[in-house]
Amino acid sequence: MRSSSAFTLTELLVTLCLLGVAASVALPNLNHYLHNQRQEDLRHSLQSHLKAARGEAIALMQRVELCGSSSGQQCDQAWAQGWLLRVPVSQRILRYSRQRGLERLRWAGAGAASQSVIYQANGSTVASNGRFILCDAGGQVAWQLVINRQGRVRHQQGLENGQSAAELCR
After folding, report:
1. Alpha-carbon distance 161 to 170, whole Å?
2. How far is Cα 141 from Cα 136, in angstroms, rounded to an integer?
3. For the chain, first and last CA: distance in Å?
4. 169 to 11, 51, 141: CA distances (angstroms)
5. Opening angle at CA 130, ends 124 and 135, nearest 5
6. Alpha helix (H) ranges present in 61-169?
7. Which end of the chain has the lower number of beta carbons within 10 A, N or C?
8. Where are the alpha helices (DSSP H) in the chain?
9. Pairing, β 116-119 against β 104-108
10. Beta-carbon neighbour count of residue 170 at 10 Å?
């Protein structure tokens, strides 16, 4: 006589319960990981567009502007929805990056060109130092991209000395 080998109903229920517990522990961590990954993707995209803007300004030997844009046609300071890379003199659009608008991204620049980042033909910025700040839903600074006068971009995780999240993320 042949013996059959199979799971009993009790073994199957215990296995399903253990899988359920494991899934309930893993899913919140997965959401946290995905949220952090979206923040990093946003940072990499913005950083690459800043480098491209500087490179285009040098290659075209004229000013190139990176500005917040929700439409992809004009600058409206909506950095969380996307940004536009263009030549200000001719209004020619070089690139547009659309974002989901889920994060609180803002630009804090100095000088007359404080609404956008403008690179000159030599690769330097028109204004003095500026920074992009990404604030999370809890009002904390996730990261900053700091642009110096020479046009170089530096990543800063969280706050720098003397900075306040309440002031930066208002």
Report:
1. 18
2. 6
3. 77
4. 52, 25, 7
5. 140
6. 165-168
7. N
8. 9-60, 165-168
9. unpaired
10. 9
48 CB neighbour count, 10 Å cutoff:
13
Global pTM? 0.79
Six token digits for residue 7 = 């799971």
For residue 91 the two structure tokens come to 């209004």
Give residue-wise pLDDT tens across range 47-65: 999 999 999 999 999 999 9
CA distances from 38 to 134, 149, 164 (A): 12, 28, 24
Q: Please give the radius of gyration of the chain, using alpha carbons only, rounded to the nearest integer.
A: 24
Instruction: Report the distance separating Cα 79 and Cα 141, nearest Å.
Output: 16
The model's pLDDT over 10-59, given as tens digits with 9 standing for 90+, comes to 888 888 888 888 878 777 778 888 888 888 999 999 999 999 999 999 99
Classify strands 116-119 and 64-68 as parallel, antiparallel or unpaired. Answer: antiparallel
Spatial neighbors of 71 by CB under 8 A, at least 6 apart, are none
Domains of the chain: 12-168 (3.55.40.10)
Kind of pairing between the strands at 141-147 and 92-98 = unpaired
